[in-house]
Amino acid sequence: MTTIGIIGAGEVGSQLARAAIAEGYDVVIANSRGPETLRALIAELGPSARAAYAADAAAAADFAILAYPYKPSDTLPVEELAGKVVLDTNNYMVWRDGHHPDIDSGRKTEHELRQEQLPTSKIAKAFTHVQAPSLFRLARPAGAPDRRAMVVSSDHPEAVALVTRFYDQLGYDTVDNSPLSEAWRSTPGTPMWRHHVHGQSRQQLIDNLRRAQRTARP
């Protein structure tokens, strides 16, 4: 049985835990306040889930999900995540995160900075443009004419392959927008982002990624 370590138990992390368990995964989930604060969520998720501290969730994981905003001062479980694929669900929001000069200037994406925080892991940008409450509602079986797609960006082909399989299991096609330096094309405010409520087909997503224009923030 594959175990997913989820660090971050807010709306995104909790919904991804539900989706993963529905597809037969085991989940170890952590937040910043300690496992005792996750009792209600674990009771809802059932026997395939348990709560832990972040380092323990990372150590137990076959692959991991970071479901909380990027912070330069983050102390992440680097050793426990070494060699593992790590899905980064973060979107850079100035109103929430403050300004980061490297991101604002266009020198780097937030996911490149996350890769620097976890240099021995394989970061993949994933699940960043479908609202968490819509994850089940928009899912469709493979081959359905109205199947939506989600984007992945990574510097590691094996991470792209893992996310592609995971998306398919959850009911979505994949568009590969690698490497991480191209992840700005799927950030808030870009053409594809305007479809984050209702989703978009694979071809629509490809077209919208191509239409994106990069501008430095003031």
Automatic annotation (TrEMBL):
Pfam families: F420_oxidored. Residues 3-92 form the Pyrroline-5-carboxylate reductase catalytic N-terminal domain. GO terms for molecular function: oxidoreductase activity. The keyword Oxidoreductase applies. Keywords: Oxidoreductase. The keyword Oxidoreductase applies. SUPFAM superfamilies: NAD(P)-binding Rossmann-fold domains. This is NADP oxidoreductase. The lineage of its organism: Bacteria, Bacillati, Actinomycetota, Actinomycetes, Micromonosporales.
